[in-house]
Amino acid sequence: MAEAHQAVAFQFTVTPDGIDLQLSREVLKHIYLSGVTSWKKRAIRFKNGVLTGVYPASPSSWLIVVIAIMSTMYARIDPSMGMIDRIKTSLPVSEFMTVQTQTVLSAILFATGLWLSFIFLLRYILKALLSYHGWIFESHGKMSFSTKVWLSLVKLLSGRRPLLYSFQASLPHLPVPSIDDTINRYLESVRPLLDDEQYKQMESVANDFKKDPAPKLQKHLKLKSWWATNYVSDWWEEYIYLRGRDPIMVNSNFYTMSVRQLVFNLSALDMTMKLIALGIVPMCSFQYERMFNTTRIPGIETDFVQHLKDRKHLVVYHRGRFFKVWLYYGGRHLWPSELELQFQRILDDKSEPQPGEIKLPSLTAGNRVPWARARLKYFNEGVNRASLEAIETAAFFLTLDDETHGYDPENIRSLDLYAKSLLHGKCYDRWFDKSFTLIVYKNGKIGVNTEHSWADSPIIGHMWEYVLATDCFHLGYTAEGHCKGDINKSLAPPTRLQWDIPKACQVIIEGSYMIAKGIADDVDFHGCLFNEFGKSLIKKCRTSPDAFIQLALQLAHYRDKGEFCLTYESSMTRMFREGRTETVRSCTCESTAFVKAMEDERTTVRQRLALFKKAADKHQNMYRLAMTGAGIDRHLFCLYIVSKVMDIDSPFLKQVLSEPWRLSTSQTPQQQLNLIDIQKFPKYVGAGGGFGPVADDGYGVSYIIVGEDLITFHISSKFSSPETDSFRFGQNIRQAMLDIRALFNPKEKKM
């Protein structure tokens, strides 16, 4: 084959005079260019490391300080108060180190020390300023004098053009709430769910815990908060995600979808991230570090996350075959047109899967222990090890799906099937352990399935927004639908990964597949596009859109099940270093009072509206508390971990952590980068994503506020539960949204 010949770097012939090497100039050229690219990357990393390492100062400020110190010395002024002379006396004298050289070097060393001290001082001041959260609790449009001063100081010290990781060293640590505050907030959160007798019992158990062993556990937790970067995140990743032995498909992984078609422009994934901030307050960026070249590796007792610095290939799955595709050629990224060529070669490949290859990915969809044992026994040597290593070290995993999916306005079930496919597929055509699997369907629709341990949904949402904007407005396609650019037909074709999977391993693969299929078949999903009104109208009602939606969910759930339940809403804590999430307990005394009023015909519109505003204000306040480190659940979770380590039995903590979340909700952030004008290009915006139900008899609801007039709900539950029906719940959500809207204009709807 011509491609095979091109891949040979040299040939040799044995002659009487020795070995005659015949080197391929073309291949050597590519080797040289690859080396140049590698060094360029190192140089860029070094440059960014320096810029981030000295932030909020800049490298040029060091030169200014050095010049200033040298100038004062020539003016016979010693700003160092004798320190330069002391440094000078410690330097050795030699023919290469004259007295004048010693003086200059001493001044430079002093200036450098002064400059570094100034950087640490700026960071300390900035960290103290970013620890202030009074601004978030102030009414919209109103700003106190102290907040104005704070705002000016933050702007002054924040520097210009920060990179993604510039603020990492200046972010404050997540504070540990007091025991009293956490327990009081917890009791307040469960009050609407318990009758008087149950509440008194819970109050008694909580007060006993407060006396003992809470103080002892709190002391150890505070010690950890002083020592560790974040007192929650490492335990959260380990105990919530990596130690779980159940399948991660549906139960942990989540998906993201797009209503836009994307053909082959994976060059959009070559990202240069910008800093995400809440106003002028920077968000922690540590989760972005493991976006690419990352895989969850199964273990017997616990998994671990493997992250590699740099990898130059991806692995593609198509019709039961695995292909390795290089992302570089001649020291550069492949152009979109070249990627299209490589993927077309895979689509045109007529070879058959090897024994056991088709359903091999189902090992990542089933229980973790069988997968861990199979990996150790059957994938630890030979071609199996090499092929598995290619998958686990790939930048990411790509599935060229042979099905057609996407949103079709004429097919009410199209969004449901699209979401189910992204969430679990056929249970054997996604590598659920990869940081993310990019899925491209036959009709050009795309989506992502994300492993949850390494990051939360806003991170993948950030990437998704960047990909869509880059693909739509920078790369583009020809009139025929092909990627723009030339094609280098001398590219070596994708490489088939080889497998030698014994019968015993195939039995394990089939077992994992059957477990995964049972889970997938039980997922009842409904996608609800609510376009009657959106963010624009809600804001005119002087209400937070998130609070409005959460109260609608409470009303919908009460109508659906006839009762209230413990409700989980995810809130981010990324204003703190290595912060991830906190729980907002959306079912409150205020929200239940509002819902009961909506269902009581005797209440007037004015009474309902007053209760709504009170409940919305309560929700906003709880959300702000969660964002600023004063939540309930992460603190109790960490206290529980400490109690287990110390072998202390706590009935209170056991009960708290065993309570089921029958309504689990999350908002997908939109327009984090403001790269797309939604009003002009509504079809180029992501449609959000979703996740599987958390409780067997509960609902999972993810929603995204798209532009001004659209809200998309992704609703999941289980067919096996007689209490739930995702389509029914979607209809209840729609009606609840309309009924709450009518409170602000009673003429629109008869109550």
TrEMBL record:
Q: Entry's InterPro entries?
A: Carn_acyl_trans (IPR000542), CAT-like_dom_sf (IPR023213), Cho/carn_acyl_trans (IPR039551), Cho/carn_acyl_trans_2 (IPR042231), CPT_N (IPR032476)
What is this protein called in UniProt? Carnitine O-palmitoyltransferase 1, muscle isoform
- Record domain Choline/carnitine acyltransferase: where: 174-735
Q: Which organism is it from?
A: Cyprinus carpio
Q: Which SUPFAM superfamilies match?
A: CoA-dependent acyltransferases
Name the Pfam families on file: Carn_acyltransf, CPT_N
Q: Which GO terms describe its molecular function?
A: carnitine O-palmitoyltransferase activity
One Gene Ontology term of the biological-process aspect is: long-chain fatty acid transport
**Active site residues per record:** H452
What Gene3D superfamilies does this protein map onto? 6.10.250.1760, Chloramphenicol acetyltransferase-like domain, Choline/Carnitine o-acyltransferase, domain 2
Superkingdom classification of source: Eukaryota
Q: Where in the cell is it found?
A: Mitochondrion outer membrane
Q: What does this protein do?
A: Catalyzes the transfer of the acyl group of long-chain fatty acid-CoA conjugates onto carnitine, an essential step for the mitochondrial uptake of long-chain fatty acids and their subsequent beta-oxidation in the mitochondrion.
Q: Which reaction does this chain catalyze? A: (R)-carnitine + hexadecanoyl-CoA = O-hexadecanoyl-(R)-carnitine + CoA
One GO cellular-component annotation of the UniProt record comes to: mitochondrial outer membrane
Which pathway does the protein contribute to? Answer: Lipid metabolism; fatty acid beta-oxidation
Q: How does it sit in the membrane?
A: Multi-pass membrane protein
Give the source lineage, highest ranks first.
Eukaryota, Metazoa, Chordata, Craniata, Vertebrata
